[in-house]
Amino acid sequence: MGGNIRFSDDDPSDVVLGQLHRVPTLLDYSLDSPESGRVAMAEFVLEGLHASDKIGRSEERGFVAAERKSQSQELYRDYTLERSRSKKPLN
User: Fold this and answer.
1) Which of 1, 14, 30, 83 has the greatest number of CB atoms lying within 10 Å of its CB?
2) Which long-range contacts (CB under 8 A, 24 or more apart) does 51-59 make?
3) Distance, CA of 91 to CA of 74 (rounded, Å)
4) Closest among 57, 62, 20, 58 to 41, alpha carbons compared
């Protein structure tokens, strides 16, 4: 849906949960957990989305939704150019 969320490690869990509620369905499966557990779960999901290049992350803006591109651009996209040297293979 776009947008960004930003929080730091020093923020209390209720402030972070307020930011995380802006992401649709992110906290739906952790309703019975304590606040700190919900924050940890949501941050784990966001880190996974960042690792799979579904969302972006920067120090200034926090987690950022990826820009959507038209399908015509996706059809001729060269994935070999996107290999980042900072990401190492799992093996």
Assistant:
1) 30
2) 53/82
3) 29
4) 20
pLDDT digits (tens, 9 = 90+) for 21-48: 888 888 888 888 888 889 889 889 888 8
Task: Report how far residue 33's alpha carbon sits from residue 52's, in angstroms, rounded to the nearest whole number.
Answer: 26
Amino acid in position 90: L
pTM for the model:
0.62
CA distance 72 to 60: 31
Q: Which helix (H) or strand (E) holds 56?
A: strand 55-58
CA angle at residue 67 from 80 to 41, to 5 degrees? 95
What's the CA gap between 49 and 56, in Å, rounded? 8
Q: Which distant-in-sequence residues (6+ apart) come within 8 Å of 5 by Cβ? A: 19, 20, 22, 23, 62, 63
